[in-house]
């Protein structure tokens, strides 16, 4: 094969000095922010929660960026190339409603109770059992996911710049390590804000030029329709109207029936999976906890929901363009197996964005696009590590191993935890490089932890009768039931799955998460009714009925104009996202 | 990209609490960083658009570098102006969250109280 030998010697993209200059400038700024933030870190609250001093627009953008990592950008453009418009459900159904719910309903408890992490809330509400389950599973998950992000980052550097994978891994890890140990969460958050603008500056031109090349959105529709009509039946290309309309989204769920597809998207993705992820994941919630008031904390996810609404346009559209414009992706979609790609093992949908960049961006913009991708992957890893070091230092080390030391001591432990986590991430990244599939399944497995967490949190926040025993029993049983369903499905754990339940792909993940949610709720109620509840006095700030209203709102907020208040902002966001769902 | 305009000369209403003001974590303004980076990118891309390879075959006949560069320069100007017009108000004080009996107590400020 002539193509193979060409690709193994040359890099995927031909970068010129001007591109390297743009990439280098980005790194200078990243490290500069680390040094600047260091000057402001004086105690552990500064390091772990940014001194709770950041304005809502900063934490709101960081909230989005922390999630805008490798999986989001590469994964969602890949879904766009494969399934088309239906991918927007991950944003408009699978993220925005949960983000609004977090801001309006849950954030007053997180911020108002002055806990420093989500597991600490668990401790205050349910005691040691649930806290240990939550803190340990979260810490382990963050280490593994940081490794996955690092591996993706290294493989992109390898593919783009031709550096050996291990060099790329070490350099990327060293940069992330230096800015987090220097500036703590402030550095991570400020870099996430900077990164947000670099990503938009990278992907917006890509989208516009791509659309221009295919003759606008009308041209894209026409090309996708032609493609779907002429593709061989064996390629199993979704029909054009499945690719060009978001509902009922059968291409995404893999469900035959349009009715069950809508139910799966709304309840499985929109309710159980997404509420679990966005409302209990400390990586996200930590960004809001770093803000300067309960009002800013509540507005963090709500302000974040506005840019989040428009991210699909610069992520999914380029994927769809790539599927008709980029020769290799079109060949792949028509059932072929083109050689090359970032992995070197053949082109995959994950390469859509990279190949589109290669085909349509001039040098200069190309460097900006590469800088944007590197920014996204680094921020993803930095977010995992900064959440990990908080949970490790406060929730594991301080609570169970060395209590009652000075604040300086925990600040030092936090920095050491960052170094340790980075080394472990390098190790997990090298594992991921040889078993990339296993890492995919691990990630979906960690997704299952979130569904029962959400069930336990929401029940615990609104039902004062729920007991400590119910907390850990529900959480463990819910998680185990999700694993069981995934194991019995066709492919949620790849070849390990038995195929007893006839569900595959996203459908299986929705079913596993929904089962976990129901099992957790039912068991928690049953166990609560036969065990002793906590005394009502200890639940102030933790349970809705036991918390005075004034603890949950910011007295200053009433003085602000409507567009800076929590509820009106959330209402505007909800109206916009409903309109988008009906329009597309 | 100087950070000296980030500390407001006088913050109305909180001028009396200067020791707490110094403690604030947001001592530099991210908007200047964003403005500076986008501005540098804008300059590079604009120059590429004028003098560099325009690669019309890739972009479909648009001078993409030039347009992107100009838009970046405008964005940069907006961030710089915003930072200048509304400098960061440093929070007067941050409450220490350690007044909680359920939590192992770190000795936050041994000399403070």
UniProtKB/TrEMBL annotation, chain A:
Q: Which parts of the chain span the membrane according to its record?
A: 20-37, 57-78, 90-111, 132-154, 160-181, 193-211, 259-279, 309-326, 365-392, 413-435, 441-463, 470-488, 508-530
The family note in this entry says: Belongs to the sodium:solute symporter (SSF) (TC 2.A.21) family.
- Broad class of where this protein is predominantly found: membrane
Swiss-Prot/TrEMBL keywords: Membrane, Transmembrane, Transmembrane helix
Say which domain of life the source belongs to. Answer: Bacteria
Q: Which organism is it from?
A: Humibacillus xanthopallidus
- Record's PANTHER family? SODIUM_GLUCOSE COTRANSPORTER 4, SOLUTE CARRIER FAMILY 5
| Protein name as annotated | SSS family solute:Na+ symporter
Q: Give GO cellular component annotations, separated by semicolons.
A: plasma membrane
Q: Which is one GO molecular function term here? A: D-glucose:sodium symporter activity
The protein's location, in the record's own words, is:
Membrane
Automatic annotation (TrEMBL), chain B:
- Region named Disordered: 1-21, 92-113
Alphabetical UniProt keywords? Membrane, Transmembrane, Transmembrane helix
For this UniProt entry, which segments traverse the membrane? 33-52, 64-83
The name of this protein is: Uncharacterized protein
Instruction: Give the source lineage, highest ranks first.
Output: Bacteria, Bacillati, Actinomycetota, Actinomycetes, Micrococcales
């Amino acid at each position: 094969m002539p193509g193979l030998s060409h690709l193994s010697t040359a890099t995927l993209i031909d970068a010129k000095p001007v591109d390297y200059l743009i990439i280098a400038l980005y790194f200078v700024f990243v490290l500069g922010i680390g040094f600047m933030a260091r000057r402001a870190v004086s105690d552990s609250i500064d390091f772990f929660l940014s001194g709770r001093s950041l304005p809502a627009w900063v934490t709101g953008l960081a909230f989005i960026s922390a999630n805008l990592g490798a999986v989001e950008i590469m994964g969602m453009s890949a879904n766009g190339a494969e399934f088309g418009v239906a991918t927007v459900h991950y944003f408009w159904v699978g993220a925005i409603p949960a983000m609004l719910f977090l801001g309006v309903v849950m954030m007053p408890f997180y911020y108002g109770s002055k806990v420093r992490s989500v597991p600490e809330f668990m401790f205050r509400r349910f005691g040691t059992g649930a806290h240990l389950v939550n803190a340990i599973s979260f810490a382990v998950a963050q280490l593994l996911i940081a490794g996955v992000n690092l591996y993706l980052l290294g493989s992109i550097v390898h593919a783009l710049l031709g550096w050996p994978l291990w060099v790329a891994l070490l350099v990327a890890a060293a940069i992330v390590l230096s800015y987090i140990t220097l500036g703590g969460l402030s550095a991570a958050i400020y870099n996430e804000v900077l990164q947000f603008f670099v990503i938009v500056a990278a992907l917006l031109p890509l989208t516009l030029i791509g659309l221009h090349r295919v003759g606008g959105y009308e041209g894209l529709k026409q090309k996708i329709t032609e493609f779907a009509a002429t593709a061989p039946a064996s390629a199993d290309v979704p029909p054009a109207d499945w690719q060009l309309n978001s509902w009922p989204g059968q291409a995404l769920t893999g469900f035959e029936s349009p009715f069950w597809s809508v139910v799966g998207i709304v309840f499985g993705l929109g309710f159980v999976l997404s509420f679990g992820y966005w409302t209990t994941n400390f990586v996200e919630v930590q960004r809001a906890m770093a803000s300067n008031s309960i009002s800013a904390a509540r507005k963090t996810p709500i302000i974040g929901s506005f840019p989040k609404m428009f991210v699909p346009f610069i992520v999914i559209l380029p994927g769809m363009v790539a599927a008709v414009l980029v020769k290799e992706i079109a060949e792949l979609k028509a059932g072929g197996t083109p050689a090359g790609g970032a992995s070197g093992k053949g082109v995959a949908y994950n390469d859509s964005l990279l190949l589109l960049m290669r085909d349509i961006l001039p040098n200069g913009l190309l460097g900006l696009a590469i800088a944007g991708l590197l920014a996204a992957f680094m921020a993803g890893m930095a977010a995992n590590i900064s959440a990990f070091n908080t949970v490790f230092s406060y929730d594991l080390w301080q609570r169970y191993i060395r209590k009652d030391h000075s604040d300086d001591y925990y600040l030092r432990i936090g920095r050491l935890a960052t170094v340790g986590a980075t080394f472990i991430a390098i190790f997990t990244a090298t594992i991921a490089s040889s078993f990339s599939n296993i890492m995919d399944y691990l990630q979906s497995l960690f997704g299952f932890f979130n569904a029962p967490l959400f069930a336990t949190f929401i029940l615990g926040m609104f039902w004062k009768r729920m007991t400590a025993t119910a907390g850990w029993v529900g959480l463990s049983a819910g998680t185990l039931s999700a694993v069981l369903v995934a194991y019995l499905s066709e492919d949620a754990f790849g070849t390990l799955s038995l195929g007893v339940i006839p569900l595959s792909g996203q459908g299986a993940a929705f079913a596993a998460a929904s089962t976990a949610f129901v099992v957790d709720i039912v068991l928690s109620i049953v166990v609560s009714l036969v065990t002793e509840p906590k005394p009502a006095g200890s639940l102030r700030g933790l349970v809705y009925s036991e918390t005075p209203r004034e603890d949950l709102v910011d007295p200053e907020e009433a003085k602000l104009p409507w567009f800076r208040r929590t509820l009106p902002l959330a209402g505007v966001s909800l109206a916009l996202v409903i309109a988008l769902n009906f329009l597309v | 990209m100087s950070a000296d305009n980030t500390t407001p000369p006088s913050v109305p209403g909180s001028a009396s609490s200067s020791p707490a003001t110094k403690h604030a974590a947001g001592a530099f303004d991210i908007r200047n960083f964003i403005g500076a980076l986008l501005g540098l990118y804008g300059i590079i891309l604009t120059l590429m658009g004028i003098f560099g390879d325009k690669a019309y075959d890739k972009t479909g006949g648009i001078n993409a570098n030039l347009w992107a560069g100009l838009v970046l320069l405008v964005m940069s100007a907006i961030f710089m102006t915003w930072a200048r017009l509304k400098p960061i108000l440093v929070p007067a004080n941050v409450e220490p969250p350690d007044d909680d009996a359920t939590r192992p107590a770190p000795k936050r400020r041994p000399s403070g109280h």
